[in-house]
Amino acid sequence: MKSPTKILIKEQISVDLALRNTVTVFFEHLELLPEKEIIIDFADVKSISRSFAHEYLTRKNQSKKNIIETNVPENVKKMFQIVEQPSDKTLIFDLRSIRAVPL
Fold first, then answer.
1. Average pLDDT, stretch 73-90?
2. CATH 3.40.50.360, applies to 5-86
3. Cα–Cα distance between 49 and 88 in angstroms, integer?
């Protein structure tokens, strides 16, 4: 049995994961690999945007590959958790009850 391919995401993209479209290009590359199991190594990643994390998890869920993350920094883990479990936003005021007042 062939061992899974390990990919350092910092080498493929950057240590700062920010743009949604880079996820699309990254996953297009992953889908072309012959291996069914791929390990994504997040070692040395400094930051991740919410849009990157959302697109990454969406594409991972749609992928036919078994994708496993390793060496995920705490800030990246937290962003994945935020994206996976969005909380209800607190309503400060109801925009439907506001009327425009001429000045």
1. 85
2. no
3. 20
